Amino acid sequence: MTQVLLEAGSLVLSADAVIPEPGYVLWQDGVILATGRGVYPGPRDGMEVVSRPRAVAIPGLVNTHGHAAMTLLRGIGDDLPLQAWLTERIYPAEAKLTGEAVYWGTLLACWEMIQSGTTCFTDMYFFMHDAARAVEESGLRGVLSWGMVGLDEQSRASGLGNSRAFFERWNGAADGRIRVTLGPHAPYTCPPDYLAQVADLSAALGAPVQIHLSETRREVEECLEQHGTTPIQLAERCGLLQRPVLAAHCVHLTEEDVALMRTRDVRVAHNPQSNLKLASGVAPVVKLLEAGITVGIGTDGAASNNNLDLFEELRLAATLHKGVLQDATAVTATEAFTMATASGARCVFGENGQGTLHPGAPADIVLLNLDSPHFLPTYDLLSNIVYAAGAGDVTDVFVAGRALLRNREPVTLDVERIRHEVRRLEARLRPGS
Amino acid sequence: MTQVLLEAGSLVLSADAVIPEPGYVLWQDGVILATGRGVYPGPRDGMEVVSRPRAVAIPGLVNTHGHAAMTLLRGIGDDLPLQAWLTERIYPAEAKLTGEAVYWGTLLACWEMIQSGTTCFTDMYFFMHDAARAVEESGLRGVLSWGMVGLDEQSRASGLGNSRAFFERWNGAADGRIRVTLGPHAPYTCPPDYLAQVADLSAALGAPVQIHLSETRREVEECLEQHGTTPIQLAERCGLLQRPVLAAHCVHLTEEDVALMRTRDVRVAHNPQSNLKLASGVAPVVKLLEAGITVGIGTDGAASNNNLDLFEELRLAATLHKGVLQDATAVTATEAFTMATASGARCVFGENGQGTLHPGAPADIVLLNLDSPHFLPTYDLLSNIVYAAGAGDVTDVFVAGRALLRNREPVTLDVERIRHEVRRLEARLRPGS
């Protein structure tokens, strides 16, 4: 394949490798071959040159937790207590979803994520073959799981069966952009023996696991009542933490939980805005980072956020803990940027180098407009990116070296069609309709 | 003057008057004459028609606290304890500022605020004649004050003298878009007798006051030590709260403080992101709202935020308190939107109807792109605006009926020139230079 040479005004190869002056990234077959300051020193014969002197190139952001098609439920219920939100708004609307709806909702999510600089995302939902088709078409990288609940025999069997079939059909598909993980929803919807079965399936398939753990205080209290232990320790007891696990939320943790998560190398998806909006609380991210646990950042679904803008989350991760702990040094710009990129990639069991622009990494690259007021002045480029810039500054997005957004215009998606189909579905999903 | 008819796809006249279908706003001489659903029923002879069927029109946002020219210090110091941030980064750079620098820094702030949907902002800084020139040229509405500190005789006299001269020169200037208030910095920089002098000057000029109050725990503790009372109650004792007062921050309050603020109709500028980033804490906004106190939203200066995007703040105001109080009904979308618009206008002692699009209000109008994924679907338009949309969705901005942003392009500002001048100043302000 043709080599592509990207010339940018500045580069952030990773949080600790910032080039605040012009430089380049060279890739081929979706993998970065070389990066450097100044002008590319080698011959350019046959190369495609993408010249963006007024942009900074950063690694694409990794969204470590979400439910993509829940874009269809954006704004369907807000400012409600959790139980009313679930039972009066979310569950009734979800009961109306079909594979076709999930396909269009996932495409809407992909559009929004591309437009805001995300190159890789996780998903846990249902009708996942339809979601995977959308990811394949979008050009994004997706780490997908069929959400499993084990409340009765039928749901238990279909969850395991769907997951296995989904893994066999889609893991490694779309030139490796799609990877399949197992998605047991949570200990409060999956009883211990079911979690043990999921752990066995995970081992049999070699598939990592994503799961919601310790999101709300009530969940932890009920787990203590029913099982005599915390959700984290229950997951360990079921053999789940011995598998590679990405745990979403982890808002309410004990010290024993943290120690265990460290031992088992559990990765955490921190969803600061969703945790605030659903009144779950504030995850102890500083403690997790101090323990050496890998923490990534997620948006959660658009019904509880209500957008998929990871720049917002990354900024909130960098400011929220300072305020809550009353410590202005808590979660630095470097830490927040790493969470949204390299640590995010580690959270999703990503490829070598993913989440950086170092040679060998996949060419998942986002360009931000340096002409935006958010980059004036620029004493510290990483600070501008973390504390000032936003989704509105994203101009170009590449995944595996392929342009998904070019000068703010989606390349792979027919956004007029998505808009039309979502409006049609909206009429069907509207409460009372 | 010509009448202007804006035809929009949807309208939010105020938080409690949402028109989720096409409608219009008619204005003349900067003041709204009529609004309504559907097509304007009257004759259109001689009218200028602005047709935006794919946009929602909302009242322009009001930024109730900031230091505009501190855009020049964006990112000059982050992730530092407050004292190190001030003494090692902010004060040395501020010592290098000139009137010319403040002019360009304020223009940069105006550009950023226009681009993100703010139509009226407050400012407390120095070299304020230069700041006012920038506001005049930008077309924005500014509520400006010369920051006063009373640490020695010279600073006391010059603060009062500058403020009086600034008031006389600029209050009501730029067709009334500029209003001048008095800006005693804070009780910890203005001793009680100086605050009393400021109160007297406020009464003599008929000028309201803006001041920082109870921002940090340390400030309150030191005030208790030195004066035996809280900053709020000290301000009362000095006669300041008997004047119209906009108090910024109010993070650390006692019940007596809140009761007194209610009695005195003190207005509060809530700066959620700055309070988090500087580790000041979380203001008791729910308590303030329950007490019936008028609360607006502010960005604070770009050195402690680090941008002037009020959509971010409005969303944070709507989510932060839910999470911290673990109550998903705390600060609803309606409340947050009102804080950023109508209550913000009341905070800045604004004109009749300001912060709404009702007849008689100034034609300060922002258009958001309904084609953005943030508006798909739209079960509740206000929810989409508060919880999903952002600065990147702003396409057009009018202040007093005049277009300041048209299809994302600034109309009144020479942004190339601003960029050039800020880059020049950046070289001078850079730490160590």
Can you give keywords for this protein?
homodimer, alpha/beta, TIM Barrel, 2 domains, nine-stranded mixed β-sheet, four-stranded parallel β-sheet
Could you give the topology of this structure?
The structure is a homodimer of 433-residue chains.
Chain A: E1 4-14, E2 17-19, E3 23-28, E4 31-37, E5 48-59, E6 61-63, H1 82-94, H2 99-115, E7 118-125, H3 128-138, E8 141-148, H4 153-170, E9 178-184, H5 192-205, E10 209-213, H6 217-227, H7 231-237, E11 245-249, H8 255-264, E12 267-270, H9 272-277, H10 285-290, E13 295-297, H11 310-325, H12 333-340, H13 342-347, E14 365-369, H14 381-388, E15 394-399, E16 402-406, E17 409-410, H15 415-429
Parallel strand pairs in A: 1-5, 6-7, 7-8, 8-9, 10-11, 11-12, 12-13
Antiparallel strand pairs in A: 1-2, 1-3, 3-4, 5-14, 14-15, 15-16, 16-17
Helix pairs in contact in A: 2-3, 2-15, 4-5, 11-12, 12-14
